[in-house]
Amino acid sequence: MRVLFFLLFTSNFLFSQDSAYVRDVIKELTTKKYFGRGYTKNGLKKASDYLVKECKRNGAKPLFGLNYEQPYQHPVNTYPNKMDVAINGKKLIPGRDFIVKPSSGSVKACFNFTKKDSVTYFAENNSVKCKIVLQKKLTYSVGTKLQLNECEVQLLKSRFTDEIKTAKVNVEAKFIPEFNTNNVGAIIEGENNDSVLIFTAHYDHLGGMGKNCYFPGANDNASGTAFVLNLMKHYAKNKPKYKTVFIFFSSEEAGLIGSKYFVENSPFPLSSVKFLINLDLLGTGDDGIMAVNGAILENQFNLLEKINAENKFVKEIKKRGKASNSDHYWFTEKGVPAFFIYTLGGVSFYHDIDDVEKTLPLTKYKEVFQLITTFVNEL
Ligand SMILES: [Zn+2]
User: Fold this and answer.
1) Is the pLDDT confidence value at 320 over 80?
2) Can you give the pTM of this predicted structure?
3) Would you give the DSSP letter of residue 330?
């Protein structure tokens, strides 16, 4: 009995430590300090510094020669300052009442609207254009192109029952042609170092909109980032079967830019990669998980299903074909066998200010972690 108790205590203790670590990482990355891990207030760089610190602490070696960072540049449109919109004389809350279309330029003007249809309004003032679109849900993204002299304001429909008549808009856009950012990568040697196993997650999110509103991105993708850090911590203590690489991409939300740069500038031949697992949106799991490329990589998918059936980790593993919906995509295009795993069910906040740590359940975190570590061990 004592032994049994001890074992139970030990395994729960070990896992609870990992859970606590994952929670801590998600909490940290979603604080205002990182400002949505984007393009204003140095948020993305601060997140990168944090990840480098964690890689060092976990004892993983740098992937890019002496560096954990792989720098590159890309254009991006940002809103570092003014984000003031008033509709029919009432001042609105950024992120809550409205978002701007991420390609909108700087606009400071008053507008009188003409209704085009039940959800669209147009106005023009001294050749400056403004468009209003009413939407059921506000879903933000990142713009890499700037449209001058035009502003599109998207309003949350449920908060605007009256006709839209006037708007006072003061939005300051700052287009950065060469924004400096970097991927972060680390490596842990394995038993057999001829083959490489890769775990990836994007650490960026949408950044902010104005001085106070930011998108925390707890599920997208502080959860996947924490998952990969947890894997790193695990393999630092338990030597992996193969050489294991951990990559945190930046600028996924801006169009899979970091992962594209990586595959074009990989520090090792991609032909040596045995398998890659990309983790993005790992915060739920009530309805199981999805394996993108599961419909193409039959053998690997069967192995994943077999392990799950034996251990009953998650309710269901769904599969789909090729999809350019996250960072695994460019690897797939280069012929690297890869799964993109995301959890299904549970909370549905997505690309909005409500994707916060507090309501992120991490329902099947432990089970998905066990499923993936067992899977790569049997590859
Ligand atoms: Zn994502």
Assistant:
1) yes
2) 0.94
3) H
